[in-house]
Every structure is written in structure tokens, then in C-alpha cells.
From TrEMBL:
Position of the signal peptide: 1-20
Disordered, as annotated region: 158-179
Keywords in alphabetical order: Signal
Name listed for the protein in its UniProt record: Uncharacterized protein
Listed Low complexity bias regions: 158-177
């Protein structure tokens, strides 16, 4: 009897072992579904366990191999442990789980579908899965695992508009009955004009962007009878040991809401494979509706991806506001650690918010392209990648919130590349890159009216090139630092700021038609820079003996500074109220080039010209302003002022008759070199000007009668610390006073030009320090102003 019992125990053990081996199942491994996010990659990467794992899902429920349906249950022929052929369409109404060590093949025009929101089809086989032409798998969630997965022409894995409920405590479905689109990877669009938020459903699941597994959200309805628009997109996960061929489509798109509701947002697609090939489509796009749905999230973890594949997560079209589609979703390349946000040239005003960026490991690249609009909304944020940050083809990258421009942002990368695109910053920006290349693009920095916003600094170590109407502009202080070349190539290229400092480059080239400018054109910007010099004759010490380091802040006097630059070539325009070029070697102003502080000096100033009953006196500076006469009334011009030995004052302005013609401006100031660091050589083929403003308009009263005119502004100052000067033919160096009004206005006084020569050679051999074939002009309507030299201090150039 005892021997019989032992025999039964041994027989049962052998039977259990054989059953386990026939199923390819390891008894030491759990048969339940484990958490996908923590376990899936090991299943793909570890060949030793690929054939004996139970597929990982995200559902808290678990399947055992005994829960698997058979090939016959799906009306197929064969077995999942050999090859199962599905030759007829099979409908399901609940979740289904398939397990086997063989293959699955779905023949042409055959579908396996569960058209129920959130329904899951899970297929876990150790062999291959093939979808023949026009074959399809349709469900709210589709999870496929195989050694190879092949999708032929027009085949599909489709979870579009079949999404289940999105994660709890998310706001992907918009509130109200405005017909706004649902949100997920990108925000849904809202066509409501007075919508304070300017978007529909919001984004969610940013933290799982590299392994997305969330449903899309429904769009909003347009009435209480229809509370929702299109459904959200579903979920697709494809685990492939080797090669995935996609010649059909893999979709998790949002549903269409039509004209009665917003589009649903795209769902989630996650792919892991060694090779991803084909000519098909992978899409988690938002659905069309009254307001378009936002795009979903796609993550591809593949060693190689064929470029012919179309991969998209664009926002859905908006019927109610065609120019404002849903925002783009996200496409993350988990193998390269790069993020792409593209709206496939579907125009939108709705943003895709990007939140915290990975620091361990750092992402390699970030791409914003094809009319995607990306927002980094945090008060302080650091965006750092190992490679490129690229904004292309109508894309825009926005830092901060327009209503609160007090944020500070850091952008760190190897390269910052912009083409037909915009970067907008509300607050301050700090950039650290090796290369900045811009083509028909702009970087716009808005610091608001707050004085607490720090200067924006762009550190470009090797190369900075602006081409084809590219602009960098800031209404606060702006500094560009580098060690290589800064080039503004041609027409429309510009760098502008409230104050602007360019330093440490070995060469700066201002191409023909390009512009360096500080301050901006508005009176408030100019007044901020010039006010402290217009009320006093105090000479700014930082212009004569500047600090050794090059920095930009509110305490310094310059508006436009070029500091520690070897060579400066100006073919375009340098424009500023107070231009200071120091610690430079050579400055060349070419034939079409101009360095100008004309009409950018004081609104009033020490030598202000007055206006009295139609007659306007000209402003004074190096010379006295001319008197104005109108209907027998005389207005005396402004007084002469300034230091003839070392001039460093702005030109003065004049009063006007009314609010429409309040002031005529004086000339600004140009300082080249400094006492300690004189400029090695100035070659002037073009012009250098600090002229006063002229008034050329006729002013009439309400009854049409003439009321006279104001006087002209006085010329400013050109202060040159030089070793050598060459004024070539047709060049000009001027600080002339402006013309007064044609009826009653006196001319402005001329300004001051001063040459402070340094290191003049001594000995018997004559070495010229100045060669002049151009024009020196410091005239005014009341006689010559002042032209002085640092050593002989006479009124002739020759020493």
C-alpha cells in the first residue's frame, strides 16, 4: 500500500512537469500579469526568458495561461502553440487574452475586433504575428508581443475613438458646452472668443511620456443634451523581439466630434523593437470637431527606424476656428532619448505644455516643428539636452506666461537651431550653446515693466549666425557672449535690446541691411537709458575707464556695447543712444555701413531749445542753438555746454508746440576705445553720425493757420581714443545740429568730435596717424562747434 502511494505521488509530479514543459511555462515565474512599466523591457531584451514569459499588462487584473482562448475560440484553424490562421472576422464584446509558443496569422480582409470602449485584446506568442492585406485588429487597448510582427499593405491595428476613461484627477475632458477639444499629449482647442484659458481639455501623463499608457479624453459637447464630443483614442503596445514591419497603420486617434462637439484627444502608442521598418503610419492624432482634440503620446524604443514611416500625433482640425486646431501631442524616441513635437503643418494657437525635463539621463534632442506651439510654463525651468534644441517650419517655443513676465529660464544644449520659427520668453532667458543658427526666425524676450527681471544672457561659444530676416530682441537688458564668430548676414537680420552688450567674440560682422540697436525705438526705452545723462554734465566714468570685465546691467551708461572683440566689420547699421566700443583691435565701417547715434539723445537736456508763441529756438551743445523767429517773436536758442578737453555729453532737444509735436531730439554719443585701451585702428568707408534731429513738418492749428515750428536738436558727441584713423573717400564723420522748423524754428547747435591719440610714434621718420579723404562735419546754423584733439587741443586736425 505504501509503495502504491509513492507511485501515485511520483506519477503526479511527472505529469505536472510534462504539462509545464509543453506550455513553455516556468513554474518559478508568476502566472499573473505584472506591472508593464517596470517589467516590459526585460522581457524584450532578455532572450533567455522571451519564450516563457506571461505578457505584462497594465491592468490590475491578472491572466494565467489557462485563461487564454484557443485558436478555435476565435474561429481560426490550428493552434497558438504551432500556427493559428484566422480566416473569418470575429467579434468580441469583452477582453480577450491569447497565449502560445507558436504563430498567429490574420488573413486578408479578416478582422479581430472588440468595438467596445476600453476593451482589451492581448496576444502573447513566442513566434511571429502577421496581418495580411486589409486585415485588422480593433479594440480600445491592443497589446501584441511576438518575435516578429509584420503588417502588410492596408492592414491596421486600430484603437481610434475607443478609449476608456483617462487617469483620475485629470482634466483632459473640457468643462462647459463650448464644443472644445479633449486634451492629452497636447491641449484641446477652444473656439470660444472670451475663454480666459484659451484652450479646451488640458494635458496629462507627462511623467510617463517615454512609456505612455493612458487613454485619450472625450471632447466637450455643445449642448446639455449632448455633453460630449468625440471619444478619446485608445492604447496600443507592441513588443517585438526583432523586426516590426508596418506597411499598414497603427492608430490610437481621437474620435471626431463634428460640428456638435469637440474632437477627442489622441491616445497612447508604445513600441519596442530592434528594427522598425515599412512605409505605413503610426498615429495618435487628435480628432476633428468644433474644437480640435489634442494629439496623444507616442513612444518608440527601436534601434533603427526607417524614415519612410509616417509618425504623427498632430492636433485635430477645428471646424469652429479653422486656424486653431488642437495642439500637437508628443513623440518620444526612447532609444535616442529625443522628444519631437510636430503638428504636421496644421496651424494652431493652442499650446503643448512641456513640464520638467529629465536630468538623469539627459535627453539628446528636442524638436519643435511644423506649426507646433510648445509652452514651458514654469516660473523657473532648466531645459538641458546633450545635443540639439531645434525649432523648425513654423514651430514656436514659449517660456513663461504673458501675464506674469517674471520667470527665469535656462536653455543648455550643444546647438540651438531655428528655421522659420519663433522662441518667445516672458521673463529672462539664459542660453548656453556651442552654436546658434537662425534662418527667418526670431527670439523675442519680454521682461514686462518689472525691474526685478535680470538681464538675458546668450552664451554662444563657437558660432552665431543670423540669416534671412532673423531677429533677437529684448525690451530689457540683453547680452551675447562668445569666443568665435557672430554674424548678421544681411537684410532684416537684427539684434535689439533695451541695453545690448556683445562681447568676447573674435569677430563680429554686421552685414549689409542688418541692424544692431539699443535702445528700442520707443521713447520710454530711450528715456530709460539717457535720462541720467541729460540732467547733468557729469561725465560717465565707465565710458572713459570701463571695467575690465564685460557685463550688462542697469548701472552702466552705455546702451550698445561692443567689448573685447578683436575685429568689428560694419556693413549694415549700428544704432544706439550711447554706443561704446572698447577693448577692440580694429573697427571697419564699410561703404554701406553706418554707426549712428543720430536723433537718439536727450528729449530736453542742458542746452534745451525753448518754444514761445510759434518761434522755436534750436538746442545748444558744442555751439549755441540758433534763435527762432515767428510773427515778430524771437526765441533764444539753447546754450553751449560740455567739456572741450574731453567731451562726453549727449545732444539736447527742443520743445514743441503741442502734444503731437512735443519734442525734437538731440544727438547721442559714440565712444570708441578708452583711455587705457585705445582702438588700434578705425577705417571709415561709410559714416559715423551723432546728429541732432531736424524738424521738417508744417504745424497748423485747428482752424488751419500756421503756428510756427520748433528748433532743431543739437548734435551729440563722437569721442575717439585712437592709435590710427583712416577716413576714406566719400566717408563722413558728423555731429551736425538739426534744422529747425521751416516756419519759426532755429537750427540746432553742432556737437563735439574729439580725437584722443595714443602711442604716437616719436623719431625722425614721419608716420601718419590720420588719413582723411572724407568729410568731418560738426556744423550748425550758428557757426562751427568743436573739433578737438587729445594732445594739441586746437581746432585743426593736424598735430
Amino acid at each position: 500500500m505504501l509503495m502504491y502511494i509513492w507511485f501515485c505521488i511520483l506519477l503526479g509530479y511527472l505529469h505536472r512537469s510534462c504539462l509545464s514543459l509543453s506550455l513553455g511555462h516556468n513554474l518559478n515565474r508568476s502566472t499573473g500579469l505584472e506591472d508593464w512599466l517596470g517589467y516590459s523591457k526585460s522581457l524584450v531584451r532578455d532572450n533567455s526568458i522571451l519564450h516563457d514569459f506571461v505578457f505584462v499588462g497594465t491592468s490590475p487584473s491578472s491572466y494565467s495561461n489557462n485563461d487564454s482562448v484557443s485558436c478555435e475560440d476565435l474561429e481560426g484553424v490550428g493552434s497558438f502553440n504551432t500556427t493559428c490562421l484566422l480566416s473569418s472576422t470575429h467579434y468580441l464584446n469583452s477582453d480577450v487574452y491569447v497565449y502560445g509558443v507558436g504563430n498567429l496569422e490574420i488573413l486578408s480582409h479578416v478582422s479581430l475586433l472588440c468595438p467596445v470602449e476600453g476593451c482589451m485584446i492581448t496576444v502573447n506568442v513566442s513566434g511571429n504575428i502577421k496581418l495580411r492585406q486589409n486585415a485588422s485588429i480593433i479594440a480600445g487597448s491592443v497589446v501584441l508581443s511576438a518575435a516578429n510582427l509584420s503588417m502588410e499593405y492596408s492592414s491596421s491595428i486600430n484603437s481610434s475613438s475607443l478609449g476608456g476613461p483617462p487617469p483620475s484627477q485629470t482634466s483632459g475632458t473640457p468643462f462647459g458646452i463650448d464644443g472644445a477639444g479633449g486634451g492629452h499629449g497636447g491641449r484641446g482647442a477652444s473656439c470660444l472668443k472670451n475663454n480666459k484659458t484659451n484652450w479646451g481639455g488640458d494635458v496629462y501623463s507627462w511623467s510617463t511620456l517615454s512609456e505612455p499608457w493612458s487613454y485619450g479624453s472625450k471632447g466637450g459637447g455643445k449642448s446639455t443634451q449632448k455633453q460630449y464630443g468625440g471619444n478619446g483614442g485608445g492604447r496600443v503596445k507592441l513588443l517585438v523581439k526583432d523586426t516590426l514591419y508596418v506597411n499598414g497603420s497603427v492608430t490610437a486617434e481621437g474620435g471626431n466630434g463634428g460640428s456638435d462637439g469637440g474632437g477627442g484627444s489622441g491616445g497612447s502608442i508604445s513600441v519596442q523593437a530592434i528594427k522598425l521598418k515599412g512605409y505605413g503610419t503610426i498615429s495618435a492624432a487628435g480628432g476633428m470637431g468644433w474644437g480640435g482634440g489634442g494629439g496623444g503620446r507616442i513612444s518608440l524604443d527601436c534601434y533603427s527606424i526607417q524614415e519612410d514611416l509616417k509618425i504623427t500625433a498632430h492636433g485635430g482640425m477645428s471646424i469652429g476656428c479653422p486656424g486653431n486646431s488642437g495642439a500637437a501631442g508628443t513623440y518620444f524616441n526612447a532609444n535616442l532619448l529625443s522628444l519631437k513635437v510636430s503638428n504636421d503643418n496644421v496651424t494652431t494657437e493652442t499650446e503643448t505644455p512641456l513640464l520638467d525635463f529629465s536630468t538623469t539621463p539627459l535627453w539628446s534632442n528636442v524638436y519643435v516643428e511644423n506649426h507646433a506651439k510648445v509652452l514651458v510654463p514654469l516660473v523657473w525651468s532648466r531645459v538641458q539636452v546633450r545635443g540639439q534644441i531645434s525649432v523648425y517650419c513654423g514651430g514656436s517655443l514659449i517660456f513663461g506666461l504673458s501675464d506674469y513676465p517674471i520667470s527665469e529660464f535656462e536653455l543648455v544644449a550643444e546647438e540651438l537651431l531655428l528655421s522659420d520659427s519663433i522662441i518667445e520668453v516672458f521673463g529672462a532667458l539664459r542660453v548656453s550653446v556651442k552654436m546658434l543658427l537662425m534662418w527667418n526666425s526670431s527670439i523675442q524676450i519680454d521682461g514686462g515693466e518689472s525691474t526685478v527681471v535680470t538681464a538675458s544672457i546668450l552664451e554662444i561659444r563657437n558660432l552665431a549666425v543670423l540669416r534671412q530676416n532673423s531677429i533677437i530682441t529684448s525690451n530689457t537688458n540683453l547680452g551675447l557672449y562668445g569666443q568665435g564668430l557672430l554674424q548678421l548676414t544681411g537684410d532684416g537680420d537684427a539684434i535689439q535690446g533695451q541695453r545690448l552688450s556683445l562681447s568676447l567674440f573674435y569677430n563680429i560682422t554686421v552685414g549689409s541691411g542688418s541692424l544692431l540697436q539699443a535702445p528700442l525705438d520707443d521713447d520710454a526705452s530711450r528715456g530709460t537709458v539717457t535720462k541720467h545723462l541729460c540732467d547733468t554734465q557729469r561725465c560717465p566714468i565707465d565710458l572713459l575707464t570701463p571695467p575690465d570685465d564685460c557685463h550688462v546691467n542697469y548701472t552702466l551708461s552705455f546702451s550698445l556695447q561692443i567689448c573685447r572683440v578683436e575685429d568689428l566689420l560694419v556693413n549694415g547699421v549700428m544704432k544706439g543712444s550711447i554706443i561704446h566700443i572698447h577693448r577692440a583691435r580694429t573697427v571697419i565701417v564699410d561703404t554701406d555701413g553706418m554707426i549712428t547715434a543720430s536723433e537718439l539723445g536727450c528729449t530736453e537736456g542742458i542746452g534745451k531749445g525753448n518754444f514761445l508763441n510759434g518761434s522755436g529756438g534750436g538746442a545748444g551743445h558744442g555751439g549755441k542753438g540758433g534763435s527762432g523767429y515767428f510773427n515778430g517773436i524771437k526765441s533764444i536758442g539753447g546754450n553751449q555746454y560740455g567739456n572741450a578737453i574731453l567731451p562726453c555729453e549727449l545732444g539736447s532737444g527742443t520743445e514743441g508746440p503741442n502734444e503731437s509735436h512735443r519734442h525734437v531730439l538731440g544727438g547721442g554719443m559714440i565712444v570708441l576705445g578708452s583711455i587705457q585701451w585705445p582702438l588700434l585702428r578705425l577705417d571709415l568707408y561709410g559714416s559715423m553720425r551723432a546728429d541732432g534731429q531736424s524738424f521738417n513738418k508744417a504745424i497748423s492749428s485747428n482752424d488751419g493757420s500756421m503756428v510756427g515750428g520748433p528748433g532743431g536738436g543739437s548734435g551729440g558727441t563722437v569721442l575717439l581714443f585712437l592709435q590710427e584713423l583712416r577716413l576714406l573717400e566719400n566717408s563722413s564723420l558728423s555731429v551736425i545740429g538739426g534744422n529747425g522748423g521751416s516756419l519759426g524754428g532755429g537750427g540746432g547747435g553742432g556737437g563735439r568730435i574729439h580725437f584722443h591719440w595714443s602711442k604716437i610714434g616719436m623719431g625722425e621718420e614721419y608716420v601718419p596717424i590720420a588719413s582723411i579723404n572724407g568729410t568731418l562735419d560738426n556744423s550748425s546754423q550758428t557757426g562751427n562747434a568743436r573739433l578737438t584733439n587729445g594732445y594739441c587741443l586746437n581746432e585743426k586736425l593736424e598735430c
